[in-house]
Amino acid sequence: MTSPFTAPSRECPCGSGAAYDVCCRPLHDGAPAETAEALMRSRYSAYAVGHLDYVFRTWHPRTRPADLTPTPGTTWVGLEVLRTAEGGPSDDVGEVEFRAWFRTPDGEHVLHETSRFERRRGRWVYVDGDVVR
Predict the structure, then answer these.
(1) For the chain, how long is the longest CA-to-CA vector?
(2) 67-99 as b/e, with b when 16 or more CB fall inside 10 Å?
(3) Among 5, 45, 108, 114, fewest CB within 10 Å belongs to which?
(4) In the chain, what are the domains?
(5) 113: Cα separation from own chain's centroid
(6) What does the DSSP 8-state code read for residue 57?
(7) What is the DSSP code string of 27-42?
(8) Given the DSSP bridges, would you call strands 123-131 and 107-120 parallel, antiparallel or unpaired?
(9) Whole-model pTM?
(10) What are the φ and ψ backbone dihedral angles of 132, each rounded to 5 degrees?
C-alpha cells in the first residue's frame, strides 16, 4: 500500500506544517535528527506512515521490544508537543512531553507521554517513556 504522505505536497503528519518530503522523510531515509524533539516527531510520523523499521532503528537497543507489530486498524491522527527539556543539538539527553491522538475500531484515544532520549554514537535514540494518566 502506498502512503498518502509520500507526495511532496502533503503536510507532514508530525504537525510541523512543513511538507513530509522536507520534514520527517529525510530522517526516515537516514538523515540524523538534530534534536530529541525532531526525533520524537519523526518517530510519530513513522507510525503514521507505516515506517516501523525506522521506529525500531531509532529505539535504544537496551529498551526496544523484539516485535513492533502495529495494532490492526490504528490510525494516527494528530500530535501536540507540550514540553521539551534539554535535547538540543549540543545535549546528550533530552525529554519530550507530547499528546498523540489515534483512532482504533473501538474509538478515539490519546497517548500522553513524557519520553526520554539520549544521544548514542552521535545520533538521538528513544530510550523509554512514562505515560501520563
Answers:
(1) 43
(2) eeeeeeeeebeebebeebeebeeeeeebbbbbe
(3) 108
(4) 4-131 (3.10.450.50)
(5) 12
(6) H
(7) HHTTPPPSSHHHHHHH
(8) antiparallel
(9) 0.91
(10) -90, 125
